[in-house]
Amino acid sequence: MRDIVVTLLFAHFARHALRSPYVGALLWVWIGLMNPHRLGWGFAYSLPFGMASAAILLIGMLMHSKEVRWPKGVQLPLLIALISWMGLTTVTAIHVGPSLSKYVEVLKVLGVTILVACVVINRKQIIGLIWVVTGSIAFFGIKGGVFTLLTGGAHRVWGPPSSLVNGNNELALALVISIPLLYFLSRNLSISSDLAIIGRVPVRYLKRGLQVSIFLCAIAAVGSQSRGAFLAIGAMGAMLWWRSKSKLGLGILILLMVPAILVFMPDEWTARMNTIQTYQQDRSAMGRINAWSVAINIANDRFLGAGFATATRVIYAMYAPDPDYVLVAHSIYFQMLGEHGYFGLFLYLMFWFSTYRMAGRLMAHGMRDPTLEWVGELGSMAKVSLTGFAVGAAFLSLAYWDMPFYIMVILLVTENWVRQQNAERSYSTSVEDGASMGLQLDGGAADVRARPSSC
After folding, report:
1. Which of 204, 325, 355, 369 is 20 to 30 A (C-alpha) from 267?
2. Distance CA 12, CA 19 (A)
3. Are 337 and 305 in contact (CB under 8 A)?
4. How far apart are the C-alpha atoms of 36 and 141, rounded to whole Å?
């Protein structure tokens, strides 16, 4: 039954995507983040929905080229430079074959991300993209939150099967990143009113639904028993409180939730969180430190890094303090360092630093112009999400995961939309000023003609 539903939904939106490349972009994001076809066990499980949605998006862009626009900003050139550098490190990799296979996968994800940025143009499309990105992840947060409450937190929450966020740690980070965007949507429901499906739901029900979703996503993130997510929640919660306009109310809510969670969660969860302080006694933590040492040693020895395939016995025998404990990097920073060298890490950090600053510029727009208040709140909540990613992904190998890149796309196209709005206002003002000046000149000429000659 699930397979039939997913296939029919895909066919329905694919038909619309051929008429509008924007719908094709949403289809790609939905399939890539949620992996709905993996929720069944029948014929749809192994169908190439991702490849099909990418092809449909590309065909739609070719058929409707007038709806495609290259967004201005430094982010896409930086991303292209990073992809190009990855291609160079792949050619010079220690294990060329496996590195090439991984590079093709990364190229597909990041390449289509660039295409998505080219078809999201107006405010309605921006808000629609935010709903699809957050909803695709929040689905698992709602389900996982209910599961955690029913089981008393005795079992871990897992993500969409066969995806980058299938693991409990990865899903927890995805939920942490989604919460600020859900909060943004709950505070700006008026701009969602013109969306085809969301706009039909009464505002009061929509607001309550989003608030419940935020709560359940937070519970699911805690129920994942992820230590990295626990640290990310702490950093994000502090920043969310700092950015919030209702600091008192949110502060009281956080103070009430923390002890409630500590009491509710089982002893196994508490013991796992306590290993953060005693990491020397935890084999998993020491394995990560061993993997980080490998990344540093590779970068010191090879300017181009080792390529995408670094977690192998051959490489660990060459660079690891403990060559018998082979583990992936478990950190986006050391992942980039070991795979692409210091320059690759530099490009990666520059990309995210520029994205973070772009969120700050959107906040400034919102403070200057009351009509752009939602833009300011989007920038503020995006900063919170990016902070959660920066902290939580420091312990996970998610350097190429697409959700943070979609946040970049949302910020980039929003900044371009703001520029367009300001340009249109400036043009309208100049036209009005010109018309007013013309009327004044015409009036002055009439006075001159009407005044009798003094000769």
Report:
1. 325
2. 12
3. yes
4. 14
The torsion angle over the Cα atoms of residues 185, 190, 195 and 201, rounded to 10 degrees, is 90
Contacts of the segment 69-73: beta carbons below 8 A, 24+ positions apart: 69/118, 69/119, 69/121, 69/416, 70/118, 71/117, 71/118, 71/412, 71/413, 71/416, 72/416, 72/419, 73/358, 73/412, 73/415, 73/416
Q: How many CB atoms lie within 10 A of CB 394?
A: 15
HSE of 244, CA atoms in CB hemisphere, 13 A: 20
Task: Give the span between the Cα atoms of 174 and 34, in whole angstroms.
Answer: 11
- The answer to whether 229 and 160 are in contact (CB under 8 A) is no
Tell me, what's the pLDDT at 39?
Answer: 83
Select, from the ranges 105-109, 151-155, 390-394, the one with the highest average predicted confidence (pLDDT). 105-109
Helix residue ranges, H only, 120-151: 123-151
Q: Are 136 and 31 in contact (CB under 8 A)?
A: no
* Cβ atoms of 117 and 412 closer than 8 Å: yes
Question: Of 72, 177, 55, 83, which is closest to residue 117 (Cα–Cα)?
Answer: 72
List C-alpha distances in Å: 252 to 120, 181, 246, 249: 38, 21, 10, 5
What mean pLDDT is predicted for residues 253-276? 65
Please, are residues 231 and 392 in contact by the beta-carbon 8 Å criterion?
yes
Question: Do the beta carbons of residue 258 and residue 201 sit within 8 Å?
Answer: no
H helix and E strand count, the chain: 16, 0
Radius of gyration of the chain (CA): 25
Question: CA dist 32 to 27, 161, 162, 169, 212, Å?
Answer: 8, 12, 11, 18, 25
**Residue spans per domain, the chain:** 1-68, 73-119+282-445, 126-277
Range scoring the smallest mean pLDDT among 188-197, 239-248, 325-334, 382-391? 239-248
Q: Give the position of tokens 């000149």.
A: 441
Confidence of residue 454 (pLDDT cuts 50, 70, 90): very low
Confidence band of 442 (pLDDT split at 50, 70, 90):
low
Distance CA(125)–CA(422), nearest Å, equals: 19
Residue 450 above 90 pLDDT?
Answer: no
Q: By three-state DSSP, how is residue 121 classified?
A: coil
Q: Of 184-193, 242-251, 281-290, 406-415, give the lowest mean pLDDT range.
A: 242-251
**First-to-final CA distance of the chain:** 99
Exposure on the CB side of residue 233, measured as CA atoms within 13 A: 27
